[in-house]
């Protein structure tokens, strides 16, 4: 733990030379520190392909506790894990969590290397019913994971996570299963979706998939949304990365808004038809 703290302080001295490493996480202006960190990375051209700015989002609440999220360039999302009595406090707490993770991502142990891949595959094997020999077979889940890690050699875990979020959502959405049923190989699926980042178009497609599921199983979107909200809350309080849970919430909310909009339009059309028929009679 002490060695990790020393490494973080060394990184702070490199990336934020004007800041005192011992005081960075105590700085009340941690929001500005986080912004400075990513601006410096942008100057070094070490930002993500889908580079952007640090974005904050506060949940509407009439009173405490307040919740704030911060999304980093590349899409990683963090939130305040403490009980905050003001919006400003929640924002600072979310920024602190994001800054710690941003700095931790700069450590050598967060780079995808051959050693990292071996350890990750072994961990994946121990947590599943697979074997190490599956790592050489792209048709298995272990093999696909190994292939994705190999394809992203040299990247950091936050960069790799930007790619993984797409496949996590496709798996949750049922799209990966549907693609396997069309005889597409895992490598083909990975190669195809590795070209795309998660954007509004992809979210809309996933929302449409859930609208179709709702037609087959009424109420399923509301059930999934409750699960997503609970997972998001638990992950936030644990200080974990939140993008997967937050994207699930956004996609399901988008699907519900489409359904509600269609119902309102349909109801309005019915009312107009009734008025027209009344006028005719």
Overall mean pLDDT stands at: 81
Class computed from helices, strands and strand pairing: mainly alpha
Return the string of H and E elements.
HHEEEHHHHHHHHH
Low-confidence stretches: none
The shape is globular
Bin the strand percentage.
under 5%
Q: Classify the helix fraction into a percent range.
A: 55-70%
Quaternary organization: single chain
Distance between the termini: 82 Å
Give the strand line-up of the largest sheet: 1-2-3
For the sheet with most strands, the description reads: 3 strands, antiparallel
* Count of β-strands: 3
> Radius of gyration from the CA trace?
23 Å
Number of helices: 11
Search tags:
mainly alpha; 281 residues; single chain; three-stranded antiparallel sheet
Give an overview in words.
The chain is mainly alpha-helical. 62% of the residues lie in helices and 4% in strands. The chain has 11 helices and 3 strands; from the N terminus they run H-H-E-E-E-H-H-H-H-H-H-H-H-H. The protein has helices at 2-15, 30-43, 87-104, 114-126, 141-151, 157-173, 175-181, 186-193, 200-216, 220-237, 243-280; strands spanning 55-58, 68-71, 77-79. A 3-stranded antiparallel β-sheet has the order 1-2-3. Helix 2 (30-43) packs parallel to helix 3 (87-104) and helix 10 runs antiparallel to helix 11. The longest helix has 38 residues, at 243-280. It is globular. The termini are far apart.
Task: Give the helix/strand layout.
Layout lengths: L1 H14 L14 H14 L11 E4 L9 E4 L5 E3 L7 H18 L9 H13 L14 H11 L5 H17 L1 H7 L4 H8 L6 H17 L3 H18 L5 H38 L1
Antiparallel strand pairs: 1-2, 2-3
Helix pairs in contact: 2-3, 4-5, 9-11, 10-11
